[in-house]
Design goal:
355 residues; 11 helices; 12 strands
């Protein structure tokens, strides 16, 4: 949030950053635009400017910048959604549709928008140079980051409004699911459905959001059964990889009667593996997923899911981004949404007929 030394809670300017950092406004402008190398500003000075900007809660005023650069025609705002090649796309799809609806409403003869999807490999966001260029985008939504990406963003100074989806990074506005909710609800669904030895299925790379889900699930199982929860680690997040991991665990003699899959795609893979191993759902092994993708209701039995708050997060993130573009936000904002739970046949072991 903005520093209390800035009177009235008004947006922080480059002049206030320059005064506190003891440098010129021109130096601040260059650093915040990530042009310190070409302007021959020392790394020490650049770091001082970025630290000061974060401490004061600086948010770029893209509305003001675009008004100054207007040349008679419509103002053009270039927006983007950054996501990984490896991650499931429902959240990105929801954000894209929500952003497009907002653009359709707000486009007029004076203002136009474009939307791009930028893809990167998990953990390599730093290799997307366009992210740090002040003349490339005017606002972005970033999702599906890994710890290395979060570390990069925490040190970087992106020179325009950014919304982080599903993770909390100091200095950035974020929209995320309520901490602990997904994992706790998954544990309640499985234990309440009659499971006593559930496991958690996740990919090898774990994002901030997935780590929260896994940890909350493990705590929930421990609290209700007194037992430690075993993890089945998949090579990736698609259904084939999930199926291979579950089948390998069963073949190796792991005993379990419930699976919490951190995505619906992994849950679908678990269905296939259990079928191959002649395990019935939910009588032998119950399954709970996350996301409530369209496939969930068409699996047999229908998949119990914790919805992952995709729609709610996109509905909060897009208006927040547009408020930042208009210069209405005076510091980072955090919005928390609570995902719903859809209990279906895959978790109801107590209701399954006896053998």
């Amino acid at each position: 949030m903005p520093n209390n030394d800035i009177p009235g809670g008004r947006p922080v300017t480059i002049y206030e950053i320059a005064k506190k950092a003891g440098v010129s406004p021109a130096a601040v402008s260059s650093v915040l635009a990530n042009r310190e190398i070409e302007r021959r500003i020392s790394p020490v000075t650049a770091q001082k400017v970025r630290v000061t900007a974060r401490e004061l809660g600086y948010v770029p005023n893209m509305a003001g910048r675009r008004l100054r650069s207007r040349q008679g025609g419509a103002r053009q705002y270039d927006l983007a959604i950054f996501t990984t090649f490896e991650a499931p796309l429902p959240l990105v799809s929801q954000a894209l549709h929500t952003m497009q609806r907002a653009v359709d409403v707000q486009t007029n003869k004076d203002t136009a928008y474009s939307i791009a999807i930028e893809m990167y490999h998990a953990g390599s966001l730093r290799l997307k140079p366009a992210l740090l260029h002040s003349d490339r985008y005017h606002g972005v939504i970033i999702t599906n980051t890994q710890p290395a990406d979060d570390e990069f963003l925490a040190q970087a100074q992106v020179p325009y409004p950014v919304i982080m989806l599903g993770r909390r990074i100091p200095g950035y506005s974020c929209v995320l699911e309520a901490p602990g909710i997904v994992g706790r609800h998954a544990a309640e669904a499985l234990i309440g459905g009659g499971c006593r030895k559930p496991v958690v299925l996740h990919g090898r790379s774990i994002s901030q959001t997935v780590r929260d889900r896994v940890d909350a699930f493990v705590r929930g199982v421990k609290g209700r059964t007194g037992l430690d929860c075993v993890a089945i680690v998949s090579g990736g997040l698609d259904s084939h990889q999930g199926a291979a991991a579950v089948e390998m665990a069963f073949t190796n003699g792991l005993k379990f009667d419930g699976i919490f899959a951190v995505t619906d795609s992994l849950a679908a893979g678990a269905y296939e593996a259990l079928r191959r191993c002649e395990q019935r759902i939910p009588r032998d092994v119950a399954v709970v997923g996350v996301g409530d993708q369209e496939i969930a209701e068409f699996l047999y039995p229908a998949l119990t899911t914790v919805a992952g708050a995709n729609e709610s997060m996109a509905a909060e993130a897009v208006p927040l981004l547009f408020r930042m573009l208009r210069g209405e936000i005076d510091g980072p904002r955090e919005v928390v949404v609570v995902p719903p739970v859809y209990v279906r046949g895959s978790s109801m072991r107590t209701a399954a007929a006896p053998r």
